[in-house]
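Per reviewer request, we include the raw input and output of the structure prediction for the construct analysed in the revised manuscript.
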Amino acid sequence: MALTMSPWVARNYVVFHKFIPVRDGFGLELYLGNSGYSEHWANRAVHPNHSDAELGEYERSGEIAYMAHKQRQALDYISGHKGWFVWMTLRRVVYLWTGYWSFDKDYLAQEPLDPPNVFVGVVLSSMALAGLWMAFWTGLGVAWQFGWTLFLFPLAYYISHPEAYYFRPLDPLIAILGMYATVRFFERRRA
């Protein structure tokens, strides 16, 4: 992995004169989810792709300074609104694992497929967690690896902002654990 990533890391150092392992956009991602907006999981109105003012700031200050400024803004907002941050973090956890953000009609006008996605998300997450529990219970050696991955991978999205497709790298693990739960269930019924 280090060999594969090294050209990108070297490119980032040459272009930005700073060590950036993969990307430098965390400040903006943190700000998108922590700017006081809670009607949707991310405030796209403060993203340079959707705001001429933000794009102008990005172009004037440069990428590194812009990302650092967005991170400062997000951290300032979080430190001044700790209760809001905890509540939004919990909402993001629920959203990533279930697909549920809101059933408000204005929200659903933007995200009309959320109700069926919630059903699918709850079923798949429940099956995966049941499979993980069964893997621990039966002493399956890879249970810890699955558990740590499911715990650690989404942490950055819990505190910044989630997108449904961010969870896609976990889909194979969720499918494997769900199938494991299904197989164990039918084995126990036969026994």
